[in-house]
Amino acid sequence: MENSTERLLWSIALPGFGQFLNGKLIKGIVIIILEFLINVQANFNEVIISSFQGDIEKAIAQTDYLWLMFYPCLYFFAMWDAYKDADGGKKSYSFLPFVFAAYFVTVGCIYSSTFKLFGVLLGPVWLPILCVIPGVSVGFLLRKIFKKKHIEHL
To answer: What does the alpha-carbon distance between residue 41 and residue 64 come to, in Å, rounded to a whole number?
Structure first.
């Protein structure tokens, strides 16, 4: 497995692990502490359990949205940073899928207590997860456009 992909996957498992594998111990510790702080303050583990058990109303009631709003940016930053430091960031505009995923997931958090898909309330876990797909897609599309424009200017 390519180094950058391995680091990315470890960061998906737990933000900060990719930084440890890249030898960035202080950065990894800071990211893990921030992840733990935000997770606890947002009550995110309880929210995940309630969401997986299908009790979306309970998940919404348990969520501290002011804290949860920080989670997508930290999560996707940790993934990008680990990927970049493992030489995955040498590709031009490689940050765009991560940035747009963070943006779309944050917007998903904002609307997660009211947005319904086919009449079903998705809540603070499922709607943000679904928002990853258009976020990454827009990021890759813009990356492709910018790379093409960059090549044309050379």
So the answer is: 7
> Average pLDDT of 25-50?
97
Q: Which tokens belong to 148? A: 């093409």
Q: Tell me how many domains the chain contains.
A: 1
Sort residue 119 into left (φ over 0), alpha (ψ -120 to 50) or beta. Answer: left
Structural domain containing residue 16: 3-152
Spatial distance between the Cα atoms of 28 and 53, rounded to a whole number of angstroms: 32
Say which residue the tokens 């207590």 belong to.
113
| More confident call, 110 vs 1 | 110
Task: Collect all residues with Cβ–Cβ distance below 8 Å to 47 and sequence separation of at least 6.
Answer: 59, 62, 63, 68, 123, 124, 125
